[in-house]
Design brief:
Elements: H1 2-10, H2 17-28, E1 35-37, H3 40-47, H4 51-63, E2 67-70, E3 73-74, E4 78-79, E5 83-86, H5 117-129, H6 138-161
Antiparallel strand pairs: 1-5, 2-5, 3-4
Helix pairs in contact: 1-2, 2-4, 3-4, 5-6
């Protein structure tokens, strides 16, 4: 939800670049309602400045009625993480062009391409065992060549996994 808030902030001409950057960092963490909870130290880290600079920027943003600060006090004199609400108006309409759940429709992958070496080897052996290929045919020869190739791959993988002293 950061993009519409950031677009609204960029239209403001009364913000210095550093204060605008602080407001944009707040907007990146904002919910769809324009509410964000962030600590001053985290904000200082992401804006590459000190904590006091962030405090000054936030005071400026509050004075310009861009954000509102809400402080929750815990027992004693301890402040929980501050909550900031964006007061600027931004485009709240849903994005055009479909929902976020619909992605591009991709063709289904062929099952054989997603198989591992062991599964492919089992499938080739099953083809011979169930008689899908006739002995002596070109398909029979091709299937045997694939089995030898896959067993060689498995043999080299198994020998890589074993320590050198055992192999």
């Amino acid at each position: 939800m950061a993009a519409p808030i950031i677009a609204a902030l960029r239209h403001r001409r009364d913000l210095k670049e550093s204060v605008l950057h602080t407001a944009q960092e707040l907007a990146h963490r904002a919910s769809i309602y324009g509410v964000t909870r962030v600590s001053l130290s985290y904000l200082a880290l992401t804006c590459h400045c000190c904590k006091q600079t962030i405090i000054n920027h936030l005071k400026k943003l509050i004075a310009l009625k861009i954000i509102r600060k809400h402080v929750v006090w815990v027992k004693g004199n301890y402040c929980e993480v501050n909550t900031y609400n964006f007061l600027v108006s931004w485009d709240k309409r849903p994005a055009q062009g479909g929902s976020q759940n619909t992605g591009p429709t991709l063709p289904r992958q062929e099952r054989e391409k997603s198989l591992g070496v062991r599964e492919e080897l089992d499938n080739q052996k099953k083809a011979i065992r169930l008689g899908f290929v006739t002995p002596g045919s070109a398909a029979w020869q091709s299937t045997h060549e694939k089995i030898v190739f896959l067993e060689g791959l498995l043999g080299s993988k198994d020998s890589e996994r074993m320590p050198a002293a055992v192999a």
